[in-house]
Amino acid sequence: MEHHNKKARTGKGEFPTGVDLLHDPTLNKGTAFTEEERAALGLRGLLPPRVCSQDVQIQRVMANYKKKSTDLERFIHMVSLQDRNETLFYRFVLDNLEEMMPIIYTPVVGLACQQFGQIFRRSRGLFVTAKDRGQVKQVLQNWPQKDIRIIVVTDGQRILGLGDLGANGMGIPIGKLSLYTACAGINPCHNLPVTLDVGTNNEELLNDPLYLGLRQPRMEGEAYDSFVDEFVTAANDLFSHPLIQFEDFANQNSFRLLRKYRDEICTFNDDIQGTAGVILAGIYTALKLTGGKLKDQKILFLGGGSAGVGIADLIVMAMREEGLTEPEARRRHWLVDSKGLVVKSRDNLQPHKIPYAHEGEFLSDFLTAVNKLKPTIIIGVSGQPNTFTREVVEAMGRINERPVIFALSNPTSKAECTAVEAYTWTNGRAIFASGSPFDPVTLGGKRFVPGQGNNAYIFPGVGLGLTACGAKHAIEEMFAASAKALAGLVLPGDLETGCIYPPLTKIREVSAAVAAAVAEVAYQRDLATRPRPENILAFMKSTQYQPTYGSYL
To answer: What's the fold here for domain 122-265?
Structure first.
């Protein structure tokens, strides 16, 4: 075709023409190109003759979406739309956010990662492999967009509650960055999903003829560290200090990498810090129902990994603000891992658990720990389903008038208990939140709306705040401020149904408020590199990307 690789200059700038324009999802408007645009940009004959508005296109997307019979087919449908027309994709997601969130991210993204080799259509994101050592910067330079402000990177070792999925984990950074755009309004052109393919120890994948990653055991030790360091250094230099978010790294690496880089670059780990922010917000809101104070709570975790310890660390900070010393605050947090209660007498504890290893009797199971410690709040981050048994939940109901029960493991199949179980076993007295969504429950004529402790309430706003003010680093105080901002948006009507988070339909408002809280901390702590706007909240709202078509003429 004569127009191939040609560009046209109009009053709005220079654009590719013809099929090149139609094949660029960041620019393509499909049938919404006007007659004048079609003439100027070499599109005549390449599209059906009718010019359709975005509203008509949305109707077509929804009609096809409704014909899909499984969630995985719906996921593929949405990915295909994103591959063709990003603006239309984000408009559709925003218009149908509550329905779309579980499809484009948890829980369906977990299934999509497991079947990544089977459903792969078109490459999205950048695969940086162990074979690229010494050439990582050159690989990053292949990415077509140059103004990158947020990178989400995984090595695929701990994907949700599903374990080592190797290169199949690419679905996570892609999905996460889709939420950055949908929820916070980060322009998708500024986002880069990255998978560090260092191999996998998942024998099923290594033997799968359709697996698309490196067929080798995981790189470990010094070689692994130097490879990650090469990536971080190259990305930080090439893209001028972007936010680098580490996602779904295994516990043995997640804490270590966060400690290593948090004072060198702008970075955070959403599994550790984002989860902590959203759960602290849920606790703040739950206390409006129980009438208690944060410093008086006793919290028992099922699971001693990055999420649990990250939550505990942030609550400790918040308790210190209420007057407790750090040892006093830590003493109010207990962990039960796969071996039992974490106490000082245990040998070979991982370093991140040691601050929560208290003097006390070793207890081998969670139910015994509940009965002995009498917590006001239990938090499940174990990845083990059905572990908040009827006996556990009923024990919490005996100990507390309003037991707070957070079953946070993702996807839904991994939740420690369901919303129905939590409400039924406590006769509707539980304050319940989960990681993946559960439907409302009607019990005794009363309707309960389970809160979803979805990290999307926190991390997109944190990313918006950090990038908008040019923060040098992300600090814990920002996540505590985010939690307060989120809790402040829960209305009395939400509380009446037992819901401790605002509806997802308000996510853009939530993200702007979180971003403003983050930026305020950055300015107070002299971490911002851009001038302080007169009205931070208004500024955050003004920067949000809107998925509407512009004119090319």
So the answer is: Rossmann fold (3.40.50)
Is 67 part of the annotated catalytic residue set? no
Sequence-separated contacts (24+) of 206-210 with Cβ below 8 Å: 208/117, 210/117, 210/118
Does domain 7-101 fall under CATH 1.10.10.10? My reply is no
Give percent of the chain with pLDDT exceeding 70: 99
Q: Which residue in this structure is represented by tokens 């559960």?
A: 438
Instruction: State the average pLDDT for the chain.
Output: 96
Active site residue 176: yes
Q: Where in the chain do CATH 1.20.1370.30 domains reside?
A: 7-101
b/e map of 13-38 (b: 16 or more CB within 10 Å)? Answer: eebbbbebbbeebebbbbbbbeeebb
Pick the catalytic residue from 105, 284, 356, 549.
105
Fold of 272-553: Rossmann fold (3.40.50)
Residue ranges of the chain that CATH labels 3.40.50.720: 272-553
Determine phi and psi for 332, rounding to 5 degrees. -90, 5
pLDDT band at 85 (very low <50, low <70, confident <90, very high): very high
CA neighbours closer than 13 Å in the CB half-sphere of residue 249: 26
- Give the global pTM: 0.94
CB 223 within 8 A of CB 129: no
- Active-site choice (29, 176, 353, 414): 176
